[in-house]
Structure formats: structure tokens, C-alpha cells
Design goal:
Helix content is 53%, strand content 10%. With 562 residues, the chain is α/β, with parallel strands linked by helices. Among the domains are: 82 residues, Arginyl tRNA synthetase N-terminal domain (Gyrase A, domain 2, 2-Layer Sandwich), CATH 3.30.1360.70; 86 residues, no CATH class; 166 residues, Isoleucyl-tRNA Synthetase, Domain 1 (Orthogonal Bundle), CATH 1.10.730.10. The strands form four sheets. Strands 5-4-9-10 form a four-stranded parallel β-sheet, with helices on both faces. A three-stranded antiparallel β-sheet has the order 1-3-2. It has a three-stranded antiparallel β-sheet with strand order 6-7-8. Helix 18 packs antiparallel against helix 22. It is flat, with a radius of gyration of 28 Å. Bound molecules: arginine. The site of arginine has 9 residues, from helix 13.
């Protein structure tokens, strides 16, 4: 039984299951009053008592027969507060981490439930730019977090692979394209062609017509046009996959917009049947209420839109995966789009429309020098990763020139710094990205957490291991905050999942690293007396493990040396 289950079994509330109580227990920010607390507010209505009264009655009852692992059980302002015997809690917590190791924190909370996560969703023949960073790493972290909680996760890359721009690309390629350039330059070369198309089209309007013509050919399945389109797609995907490999990201499906070409008509028919599709200036729209503009689904020339494809995709996902939730990790610029799409499904009477969720996030821009995206230049994510790794390498050269496998570690530190930097704040906040900030070894950064992890590893290695049987856990009384942080890791995982917020994990990792580094300054570990040393090394091991597990969830490596 884990800590919460054990406490929950002491609390008897009519009509509330032990499981529910266990899920409501959590560690407060301030450990002065409790190690774990139960808010009693939500029982007030059913029990027809005030939360204060409920907490007091429960506290009185439980205190009568307090189990030995508890120090106290008391009521305060509607909370039922538990304090653990410190020695006991230290022992329980550390033994659990030692037993479960890389599985520590995992559970089967979500067993039998499927979550679809639509993330990264890059656009073909367009740069995989720094704007896609957040979607990619937030989605990646959420997919690992939900998997760790036992959910079945379907990772979907809803590729932007449809639209007139592909007709234009074909025109540009035929006019000015060189195979050798594309071979060498990849998406950058394709993008250059695209930019040139727009420049030339300003002088020569007929190019746009030609673009539309070629797009129509793709739609009609013309062999040559399709082959070119597939080729652009292959070049783009190969490049995106290179980035995904470095970020430790995989997808279960690359069903992009073009996949839904033949799946939109049934949705439009359904809308028509229900009288929801309205003609307006030759276009077809759905009125989604007074608080938003209508959702445009078919243009007057018969072309379908981004929203039409998302409607078809939602049906397809429900039918294929029977999801419990379907999350869309997309920037807040698309708030309106998702509100409209979700509303259309609600108007269609789909009961699962409520299970669709837009997990939005803020903008990313870069501060360092010439790479500013504000100057209208595109910042390629791959270039950002390369620069971060290069800078990490020079920091390592300076700090630890004799380190083995320097290139490997520089990759882990540099890429980790970029990921962590994108996940440290609430996702809705805009990010101004700076290499110096994310690569700082002191601060709320990845290198700081990785370095603390490596410090723990080196302590354990220097000690030649430890013997948990011979540990004196009473020596850990002054490590209570660390023990609490370790034992609340499971709560953190749950909370990160509930809020769809990986920053809960990044923050917790930074806090834990800080606590340990403080402890390390004030307490001798290696030359303490044997039983004390064993206890402190067990603590060190648990800190290392929780930091490693956190980094793994975020998609970041935890090197033992750096
Ligand atoms: N490709 C789109 C973009 O880069 C994001 C797609 C998000 N997913 C979706 N189902 N609409 O803006």
C-alpha cells in the first residue's frame, strides 16, 4: 500500500470511496502543519456539515487510535492534517524508491483509458521552426506522463500537408528548382523556392493561377503532381524525424490533413441533415453562437478548410481509438479555431465533444543576437539545438576538460537545456528564449538538475555503494523537506497530468535539486559514521532516482558524469 492509500484507509466518510479519498490527499506547500492533508470542502454538501466540522470530527476519531507511523492527525480550517513520524516516513519513502527505481512514481490510475495527443503537427515543406518547439516538447512530456499513469496514449502528428501552397511549390520547383539543391538543402531549399514564388507572383499574377491549377492536379490524383507532392513530403518528414530523434520523440500516427480528404463529406452530410450547414455568399458555414464568428467549412469555390479537416479527424479518432480524452497541443493563436470546431461537434450532439481539449501555450521568441525571429527571419529548431549543443560543449571544455565522451554529454546537456527551458514555466506564458539562460549551471535550468543528478551519482560511486540494512533513518530528521519532496513525486505526476502541465515536473525537479544541494553543504555524507552514512547515501540515491525519473518524463537524458 502506498502512503495515500494507507492514510485513506483510516478516513471513513459515508458515500466516498477510499480510492477517491486517496486521490484527494496531497502534500501542502508549507510542511509546518502537515505532511499530507485532506481538504474537506467537497464533502460538505453531501454530509450537510461545514468542512470545519467534518475535519474536526474525523481528526477526533482518528486521533483516538493513531497508528505508529503517524505523529499526529489534526483539523485546521477545514483541512484534515496528518504528520508522519519522520523516521518512519524517511524509511518508508526511501525503501519504496529503492524497490521501484525507474518505476517510482508510476501507477495504473488510467488503466483502460485511451488519450489521444495531437502534438508537434508540423507543416510540410515549411520550416520546422522554433514555434513548434513548445508543442513538440509539451506533447512529448504529456504523452510520457500519461503513459506513466497507466493510460494508453496515442501520439498523433496531424501533419499540415494540404492546401494550395503545394500547387505553388510545384510551380516553383518546375521553374527554378534544382534537384541537387533540394538534396543538399532539404526543407530550407524548398522554403527558398516558396519564398521566390511569392516574390515573382507579385509581378506576375498568372503564377497564382498556375499554382491553383497544380493543386487541383494533386487533388485529382495526377501522377506527376502527386509524385512531386510526395517527394516534398518525404524531404520534410526526414528532416522532422531527425529533430524528433534528438528530442526523444516518436509518433503512433502521422495521419495529416491530406489523410482526411475522403473523410469530410460524411461530416458535411451530417451537418446538412441536421440543418446546421448554412449557405452564405456561396460558402458553407455553421453558426456557432453569438460569441464567435461562424465556422467556415466549405469555400465558395468548393475547397474545404483546416476546420473541416479537424472535424473529420475528430470523428476518425473517436471511431479508431475510442478515446477518453483527445488533447490538441497547439498555440493559443488557435484558441478560436478549436472553440469553433468543438462547438460544431457539440451542436451535432456528439456526447464526446466534451472530451476534446485544446491544451494551449504561449509564443516562443529568441533573444540572442542575429537569430531573432522578430526580424522576420525563420529560426529553425534544428539550428537552435545545434547552437545549444555547441555552447554546452564549450562550457564542458571549460569546466571539465577531462570528461570522457564529451560530445555525447554535450548533446545531452544542450538538447536537454532547450527542452527544459521550454517546460519550466506555465505553458500559457510567452517564452523569450536565451541560450545563456537555459545553459546556466545555476538556476532553474536543466544543467543545474543534471549536475545535481551527476553529483549524487558520484557520491554513491565514491562511497562504493551503501547498505540499507545498516542505515539509521533517525539521522534523516533534518532531511524532512527532501523526504517530503521525494514522497510527493507521485502527487506531482498526477497533478501534472490533471493540469496538462509538464512544468509541475520541471519545477519539482528544480526544487528537489535545490533542497539536496543545500543539505549537501550542511551535512557530511561520505565521512559520517557508518549507520548515518548509509542513511544519507540512501537519501542521495533516492534524490538521484527521482531526478532521473523526472528528466526521463520530460524527454531529457540524465548523465552520471558531466
Ligand atoms: N499544422 C498546424 C500548425 O502548424 C497545427 C495542427 C494542430 N492540430 C490540429 N489538429 N489542428 O499550425
Amino acid at each position: 500500500m502506498d502512503r495515500n492509500e494507507r492514510i485513506a484507509s483510516l478516513i471513513k466518510i459515508e458515500g466516498v470511496s477510499e480510492e477517491e479519498i486517496a486521490s484527494l490527499l496531497s502534500a501542502p506547500k508549507d510542511l509546518a502543519f502537515a505532511d499530507v492533508a485532506l481538504p474537506c470542502f467537497r464533502f460538505a454538501k453531501a454530509l450537510r456539515k461545514s468542512p470545519v466540522q467534518i475535519a474536526e470530527e474525523l481528526a477526533a476519531k482518528i486521533s483516538q487510535d493513531l497508528p505508529p507511523y503517524l505523529l499526529s492527525c489534526a483539523a485546521l480550517n477545514g483541512y484534515l492534517n496528518f504528520k508522519f513520524s519522520r523516521e518512519n516516513m524517511a524509511k518508508d519513502t526511501l525503501l519504496k524508491v529503492l524497490r521501484e527505481k525507474e518505476n517510482y512514481g508510476k501507477s495504473d490510475l488510467g488503466k483502460g483509458k485511451t488519450i489521444c495527443i495531437d502534438f508537434s503537427s508540423v507543416n510540410i515543406a515549411k520550416p520546422f521552426h522554433i514555434g513548434h518547439l513548445s508543442s513538440t516538447v509539451i506533447g512529448g512530456a504529456l504523452s510520457r506522463i500519461f503513459s506513466a499513469l497507466g493510460y494508453t496514449v496515442v501520439r498523433i502528428n496531424h501533419l499540415g500537408d494540404w492546401g494550395t501552397q503545394f500547387g505553388k511549390m510545384i510551380v516553383a520547383y518546375k521553374k527554378w528548382g534544382e534537384d541537387a539543391d533540394i538534396e543538399k538543402g532539404g526543407v530550407k531549399a524548398l522554403h527558398k523556392l516558396y519564398v521566390r514564388f511569392h516574390q515573382e507572383a507579385e509581378q506576375d499574377e498568372s503564377l497564382n493561377d498556375l499554382g491553383r491549377h497544380y493543386f487541383k492536379l494533386i487533388e485529382d490524383g495526377d501522377k506527376e503532381a502527386l509524385a512531386l507532392f510526395e517527394r516534398f513530403k518525404a524531404v520534410s518528414l526526414a528532416e522532422a524525424k531527425r529533430v524528433y530523434d534528438r528530442l526523444g520523440i516518436d509518433f503512433d500516427s502521422y495521419a495529416g490533413e491530406s489523410f482526411y480528404n475522403d473523410k469530410m463529406q460524411p461530416v458535411l452530410d451530417k451537418l446538412e441533415e441536421k440543418g446546421l450547414l448554412v449557405e452564405s455568399d456561396g460558402a458553407k458555414i455553421v453558426d456557432v453562437g453569438d460569441d464567435m464568428p461562424p465556422c467556415l467549412l466549405v469555400r465558395s469555390d468548393g475547397a474545404t478548410l483546416y476546420a473541416t479537416r479537424d472535424l473529420a479527424a475528430a470523428y476518425y479518432r473517436k471511431k479508431t481509438y475510442d478515446f477518453y480524452k483527445c488533447l490538441y497541443v497547439v498555440a493559443y493563436q488557435q484558441n478560436l479555431h478549436f472553440k469553433q470546431v468543438f462547438k460544431v461537434l457539440e451542436l451535432l450532439g456528439e456526447p464526446w465533444a466534451k472530451d476534446l481539449e485544446h491544451v494551449n501555450f504561449g509564443m516562443v521568441s529568441l533573444v540572442d543576437g542575429t537569430m531573432s525571429s522578430r526580424q522576420g527571419k525563420v529560426v529553425y529548431l534544428e539550428d537552435v539545438l545545434n547552437s545549444a549543443v555547441e555552447k554546452a560543449k564549450s562550457i564542458i571544455e571549460e569546466k571539465n576538460p577531462n570528461l570522457e565522451k564529451k560530445d555525447e554529454i554535450a548533446e545531452e546537456v544542450g538538447v536537454g537545456a532547450v527542452i527544459f527551458g521550454a517546460l519550466i514555466n506555465n505553458r500559457i506564458k510567452d517564452i523569450t528564449f536565451s541560450y545563456d539562460k537555459v545553459l546556466n549551471f545555476d538556476g532553474e535550468t536543466c544543467p543545474y538538475v543534471q549536475y545535481t543528478h551527476a553529483r549524487c551519482a558520484s557520491l554513491i560511486e565514491k562511497a562504493g555503494g551503501f547498505d540499507i540494512e545498516k542505515a539509521d533513518f533517525s539521522a534523516l530528521e533534518n532531511a524532512h523537506e527532501i523526504i517530503s519532496a521525494i514522497s510527493s513525486f507521485e502527487d506531482m505526476l498526477r497533478s501534472a497530468a490533471e493540469k496538462r502541465e509538464p512544468s509541475v515536473i520541471t519545477r519539482h525537479a528544480v526544487d528537489l535539486a535545490e533542497l539536496f544541494n543545500k543539505y549537501y553543504i550542511d551535512n557530511r555524507i561520505l565521512n559520517a559514521e557508518e549507520s548515518v552514512k548509509n542513511a544519507r547515501l540512501a537519501l542521495t540515491f533516492a534524490v538521484k532516482q527521482v531526478l532521473a525519473n523526472s528528466l526521463t518524463l520530460l524527454g531529457i537524458a540524465a548523465p552520471n558524469k558531466m
